[in-house]
Structures are given as C-alpha cells and as structure tokens.
Amino acid sequence: MEAQILTQSITLAIVAGIAMQVFAEKIRLPSIFLLMTAGVILGPEVLNLIQPHTMGDGLEVLVSLAVALILFEGGLSLDVDSFKEVNQSIRNLLSLGFVIIIAGSTVAIHYLLGVSWALSALFGAFMSITGPTVINPILQRMRIKKDIATILMSEAILSDALGAFVAIGVLELILASSETTIVLFIYNFLVKIFVGLLVGFSMGWVLGKI
Questions:
Q1: Torsional sign, CA 74, 79, 80, 84
Q2: Total-model pTM
Q3: What are the b/e assignments for 152-169, b being 16+ CB within 10 Å?
Q4: Model pLDDT for residues 78-121, shown as the tens digit of each residue
C-alpha cells in the first residue's frame, strides 16, 4: 500500500508539473505561480493526492538535488560582463534590501498571524529568495532595459544561494537538539558550508578546464 501511494504521488507530481508548465506558457504567467497552486491543491492540505511524507529521507535528497540544479542553471545564465556594470545596485539589493525583506517579513508574519519568532524567521528567509524561476519568465514577456533586466536577473540568481544559506541555517537551528550548544551548532554548520564551497569551487574549476 505504501509503495502504491508513493508511485501515485511521484506520478501525479510529474504530470501536474508538466501540465502547469505548459499551461503557464499558454496564459503567459510565471510557471512558479501555477506550480505552487497545484502543489497546495494536490498536497496534504487539500486533496491529499500527493503525500510527500511517503518518500521518507528520499524527499530531502530530491529537494537538495532540485535546488542544486536550479542554482547551477541560474549560474550558467548569469551575465558576468553586464553584472560588473551594475554591481553597485545588485550589491545594495543583496545587502540592505536582503536584510529589510527578512526583517520585515519576520515581524509581519509574527504579529499578523501570531506565529512563533523561529518560524517567522524561517518564513522571512524564504521570502528573501526571488529566484530565476520567477524573474526569468517575467523578463521574457516584458520589454525592459538591459541594465534593469541584468539587475533583476542577477539579484534573482544570487539571492537564491544567499537565501538558501540563511533558510537552511535557521531551519537547522530550529531542529537542533536542546542539548546542542550554540557554539557546537555554529561549528557544525560552518563545516558543512566550508565543505560545500570547497567541493563546489573544485568541481567548477574542473568543469571550466574541461
């Protein structure tokens, strides 16, 4: 029975994803909007046809791979030469703008919905991620000056990585055992980040040489 539910969940997720992608192209809307809507409707909160929990630890692996692919694709589409021309604007968006979005979203969700500060901070971290999956379809359908388009796309790509970094840190802090000291948590988290950066830069260098 568990295997049947797992097969049903994966099949429906793939079919719904493709259908929403095609439909988004037809009505000229960012696909992420329809994908999220379909996920909510088909998921446990509404129809319960897709049950992610049946995947167990495999869900975390798939999500990690999906995030890696999105960031990799975004990195390939980053226009480094144009980026240098508008780096001041992008730097402002990724520093002051980034902090304002996280702080504003955290405070708003805490006081408006009464959510705990920890979950509010996690929500704020998610809201800081613009993402090329949202910005790219919009840029394809609108005539925008090259400099502005470069700023929006560069910020979207870079905020993916920065926002994911913050969100993962907040999530791990929430899930950390009560016996784990803050020093041990920071040490373990920084080790993961260091290893990830080392592997990422090493593989990037190898691919560049190839």
A1: negative
A2: 0.63
A3: bbbbbbbbbebbbebbbb
A4: 666 666 666 788 888 888 888 999 999 999 999 998 888 888 98
